[in-house]
Design goal:
Blueprint lengths: L10 E6 L2 E6 L1 H15 L6 E4 L12 E4 L2
Antiparallel strand pairs: 1-2, 3-4
């Protein structure tokens, strides 16, 4: 699966009182949208792993999105 990023993307994920909150600028939202569309076309069990070491802002909670 091809993971594409918009230039200048910013994404932060946090857990606030049990709710997952995803905050992103336009580039981040477009990147996530394209990645979710690619994931939708993939096989069950495929996933995308996001964390502060590969894509999210420092201090973000880890996030994994998996197709079932």
């Amino acid at each position: 699966m091809d993971i594409e990023w918009e230039d200048g993307f910013t994404i932060k994920v946090k857990v606030d009182d049990g709710a997952v909150v995803v905050c992103a600028n336009k580039g981040g939202m477009l990147s996530l949208a394209r990645q979710l569309m690619a994931l939708a076309d993939s096989d069950a069990g495929c996933h995308i792993h996001y964390d502060e070491h590969n894509s999210l802002e420092e201090g973000s909670a880890e996030m994994i999105i998996e197709k079932i």
